[in-house]
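Appendix C reproduces, verbatim, an entry submitted by the partner laboratory led by Prof. M.T., so that reviewers can inspect both the input and the predicted structure.
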Amino acid sequence: MTKEEKYKTLLPQAQGLLEGETDPIANMANLAALLHQEMGFWWTGFYRVQDQELVLGPFQGPIACTRIALGRGICGTAWKEQHTLVVPDVNQFPGHIACSAESRSEIVVPVWHQGQIVAVLDIDSRELNTFDQTDCRYLEKMAGLVYGPQKDIWFAAGCFWGAQKFFKLIEGVEFTEVGFANGRIPNPTYQEVYTDTTGHAECVHVRYNPSVVSLQRLTELFFQIIDPLSLNKQGEDEGTRYRTGVYYDDEQDLDTLTTVFQEEKAKLGVPEIPVELLHLSSFYRAEEYHQDYLDKNPSGYCHLNPALFKLARQKPSNGSH
């Protein structure tokens, strides 16, 4: 059985194990035990954010460091930089905290709740180069279960700066990041994508709580911030990297998405629209300066009309989520 096949089997087990339990410590304990037992990791556990420190939480494995400061070591860096870190060789990581000399490679996954990192999932291996993008994808999904159900969807809406700001404002959206989706080359840089030769689209990864905001609602809002009749052009931005699309990784989402697309075409009175609806084949996080760009640069360029941001905060008129 491949690593991905193991994760595909394990994910529904984790969902069933944590479903209905509202205590995050209990969920951390059970998730750490499940991953440790089924995946054979050397150290598997959580550190919780407490008063600007990471404090040791439920874990499986040998004795560990009790407290880690913001920005210290791999765990503290993942917390500070707000994204998953995969480290092939911990001894090559600047400022690595050696809780055990047996640890050789490591992955640290932030746990998000209400738009903030509240913990990290830390997994260590006694072998080099243990973790990769498959671990990232599935461990992020599992870490997202600790504080309740979470799902993922990817929106290409032209320049990703404004789109990220828009989706961050929606109640029920737990996490966003910008990157490049469904292209032909791995780990592209922004400069490479900008040439329109990689096949990637600028995209926003949205993780949301489906009990607070529905996929239908998110997709309807997506259509309100794009020109759905414009091919490879949104605002002043033009090129295949600015094409529009919705990308999913859960086949169960396709019916909902198809319905919203059909309703949009009927509203416009056209048989087809140049907006992609595809399974997500790849997504690579963009460089750090692109993340939350408009928060860092309030006067920065945005192709979206500022009035559109008010839509994100509005409650649905029909009372649904």
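The mean pLDDT is 95. Additional entries are available on request from the coordinating office.
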